[in-house]
Design goal:
Pfam families: Beta-lactamase
Strand content: 5-15%
Order of helices and strands: HHEEEHEEHHHEHHEEEHEEHEEEEEH
Distance between the termini: 35 Å
Strand order of the largest sheet: 2-1-16-15-14-13-12
Largest sheet: 7 strands, antiparallel
Protein name: Beta-lactamase family protein
Number of helices: 11
Radius of gyration: 21 Å
Shape: globular
Length: about 475
């Protein structure tokens, strides 16, 4: 029996799932926009952008949250939780944040890094010996089946944390990738445990040799199993005890209990004419019960207020309200670009993920690097992005997105529920209006975002 199955009952009691949280608490202190350098009048363009999507029928509703200097400048709701609802979207609506789970998993891994449990340049096989014999397709046989040959070396942990290990994903039936098709058809993401998932991956072809390119992958899900093995706890229990409870993220979890489902935002897709229709997904996507294999790559649900507390912790350098989650130098490591200049980040976590055959570079691909489970704006000017250098960001395939800008001491969170979002333009447009309204920019210099050549020391790694 997996750690997770053993822990479900205990975690339910630990979370107090039978008690609803009365009212909507403010995620952080509030401030008028002008008090922290924003124009109230100009921020109306941001709200108009979101409301227009509701009016046009592109989304049922959404929530946005903007904060600077540790204070919420704006938290707005738009439309409804579901099209059939009478009541407006609640500020504490619960959203499937999908791949925004990855930065949370990255923080979980870095908590263990601070404790000296692993190092960036360790081979992944030190923690997942099932990967001792990973193989890559070197051709096809007479019947068209791939001929598999051993990879040249095991991936490192740094490569696992940065989507450069060579793994495929299998989140969609990608016609351009035999490895992704193999993952998809084997049901890697639908496994009945994280151990079963890893066993499947071990028998399937790699997308590439380790360290050759950036490729969006199942890496964060593999990290979930490593967290379980290093901590001796199920992934949801570890995250609850080490991240969510200390940060008071009361509604963030891998499933929504019955007393909270009234706040769960309905998820939609679009038909051929662009009209919203209820999304049809497999049973493995059912968020009303504990998942058999908690996905470190895409399994969490959260609220704008909860994720704001996570973002502020990162912006603060690892602590919030006197509670330290990570050491400051470890947060700096997370925000550091680990990619060489020749590698290209090809998605923002939302664009092209569910329909890879239609994948196009997202608006800010130029000048984008990748840190620990999060994208890093190394050279924002290269793509015309208005953010400060060192901004980290990611999104989810159900339409959520965020960015954290240390140079301007701000973060933004956007939450909708439409598969694939409404295109990469929404991220770009919301950034445009946020920075258009920012009248007092650049409060501090961003940290060096150059790629490190060898192991970066932190408190535990030095011991």
């Amino acid at each position: 029996m997996s750690l997770w199955r053993k822990s479900v009952g205990a975690l339910a009691g630990f979370l107090g799932l039978t008690a609803a949280h009365p009212g909507v608490a403010s995620a952080l202190p509030r401030a008028k926009p002008e008090a922290v350098g924003f124009s109230s009048e100009k921020l109306k363009r941001l709200d108009e952008t979101m409301q227009r999507l509701v009016d046009q029928g592109q989304i049922a509703g959404g929530v946005t949250l903007l904060a600077r200097h540790g204070k919420v400048v704006s938290q707005q709701t738009f439309g409804k939780r579901a099209l059939e609802d009478v009541q407006p979207m609640p500020a504490d609506a619960i959203f499937r944040i999908r791949s925004e789970t990855k930065p949370v998993t990255g923080v979980a891994m870095l908590i263990l890094y601070d404790e000296g449990r692993w190092k960036l340049d360790d081979p992944i096989t030190k923690y997942v010996p099932e990967f001792e014999s990973l193989r890559i397709a070197s051709g096809v046989d007479a019947s068209g089946r791939p001929i598999l040959s051993p990879i040249s070396r095991p991936p490192t942990m740094r490569e696992l944390m940065t989507h450069t290990a060579g793994f495929a994903y299998g989140i969609a039936d990608d016609p351009g990738s035999a490895a992704d098709q193999a993952y998809y058809r084997a049901g890697v993401l639908q496994s009945d445990s994280l151990f079963s998932m890893v066993r499947k991956i071990a028998d399937l072809p790699m997308y590439s040799e380790p360290g050759k390119l950036w490729r969006y992958s199942v890496a964060a899900d593999i990290q979930g199993l490593i967290i379980e093995r290093l901590s001796g706890q199920a992934l949801p229990v570890f995250m609850q005890q080490r991240i969510f409870k200390p940060l008071k993220m009361r509604d963030t979890a891998f499933w929504v209990p019955a007393d909270k489902t009234a706040r769960l935002a309905a998820i939609y897709d679009a038909d051929a004419a662009g009209k919203l229709i209820p999304a049809v997904e497999g049973g493995w996507r059912d968020v009303t019960k504990p998942p058999p294999a908690p996905s470190g790559g895409g399994g969490l649900l959260s609220t704008a207020g909860d994720f704001a507390r996570f973002a502020q912790m990162i912006l603060n350098g690892g602590d919030l309200d006197g509670v330290r989650i990570l050491e400051p130098e470890t947060v700096a490591l997370m925000r550091l670009n680990h990619l060489p200049p020749s590698f290209q980040v090809t998605t923002d976590g939302t664009s092209g993920v569910l329909k890879p055959g239609q994948q196009k570079a997202f608006p800010f691909a130029l000048g984008m690097g990748y840190g620990i489970d999060v994208a890093v704006a190394v050279d924002p000017a290269a793509s015309g992005a208005p953010v400060g250098p060192g901004t980290i960001s990611w999104g989810g395939s159900a339409g959520t997105w965020f960015w954290i800008d240390p140079a301007n001491d701000l973060f933004f969170i956007g939450m909708i529920q439409r598969l694939g979002g409404v295109g990469p333009g929404l991220d770009a447009e919301t950034r445009k209006w946020v920075y258009h309204a920012l009248e007092k920019p650049l409060v501090r210099q961003a940290a060096n975002t150059a790629a490190p050549m060898r192991e970066t020391s932190t408190r535990s790694a030095r011991k």
